[in-house]
């Protein structure tokens, strides 16, 4: 029997553990692999953060390196998190997978575990689910209809250009992973074909500072999701594409097109080597640029309102536009030998046999607190604010959940 079981020892689970340790609450972290392994195992070789290093601030562990406005590489993030684990020695059971968790008669939970020594069972008063919101990579059903000679992999599996066979590469999706992987392949000299989705983009720098630093000063990362236009629907938004590579820069797909990258609209179907696209390329480029410009204008208004001395910058001028929206592509004719799917993930909580999920399989909660006594979530994208799924905001959410755990226990009558 344990007081609190935290499922997942990534940055969210570790943050809750740090707070519970400080509060003197007995707990255990159950980790299917090793602490924060996702950063080492599921990021490509040239990965960098897209948020400035100063955003990296977990409970009791703030980035103190030489480049607060820079962007840590994958290996630097892994080292920084390893230092965090060593700093307070959390009670982690590694290589311990939760196969099923269910409510226990009379309160609390029963967790069935798969461990290196075989099956095991753990009982806990409270459970904190800290497994994030990105579990099952998405691939469209028609992926199975693509000619088997074409190599297919998800962005989660991508490591570098040498991993793929010689020839052109089609990247599908322009969220943060898709846009950056397309850039990585392009810089490696591959002929890249990129199918755009609806992701917006953001400028890396504006008027002398990183845009994400401006947005933090403006309070956007601390604003509760319910206060955003559309309310909780903000949780469905795709993050803006930008890169921290080589000190940080914009990702301008129009500039890539000028440099030889081939752009398409949304991929809708495939059969053999013949692919079909919706005529949405122009619209997608224009919509991404509109968001890019809108964010710059919001920063301009903030600068004027606060009386900040920051030199103005010229408006963005698109360097390229498609003559027409392409609607078809023959992989064989274009020498394309591989496809990288970067169209996101679905949540997968099938192991959690507790009725707290909506029709899409996502947990229903208020800042991580569910309607089931003793069940909490942390580390979800947009869990409470835009910063919730990032290093910048997870500490506050973890503290809130830890305080709720302690507060709920204190509120129980002594004789109960």
Write the layout of secondary structure elements.
Elements: E1 2-7, H1 11-23, E2 27-30, H2 37-41, E3 57-58, E4 61-62, H3 74-88, E5 92-93, E6 97-103, E7 109-115, E8 118-129, E9 136-137, E10 151-154, E11 168-172, H4 176-187, E12 192-195, E13 205-206, E14 209-210, H5 211-217, H6 253-258, E15 262-264, E16 267-271, E17 274-277, H7 281-306, E18 328-330, E19 336-341, E20 345-346, E21 352-353, E22 375-377, H8 391-410
Parallel strand pairs: 1-2, 1-8, 2-5, 6-21, 8-22, 10-19, 11-12, 11-19, 12-15
Antiparallel strand pairs: 3-4, 6-7, 7-8, 9-20, 13-14, 16-17, 17-18
Helix pairs in contact: 1-8
Keywords: Oxidoreductase
Pfam families: Pyr_redox_3
Protein name: FAD-dependent oxidoreductase
What would the keywords be for this entry?
five-stranded parallel sheet, 21% strand, 25% helix, disordered C terminus, alpha/beta, single chain, 2 domains, 8 helices, FAD/NAD(P)-binding domain, eight-stranded mixed sheet, 416 residues
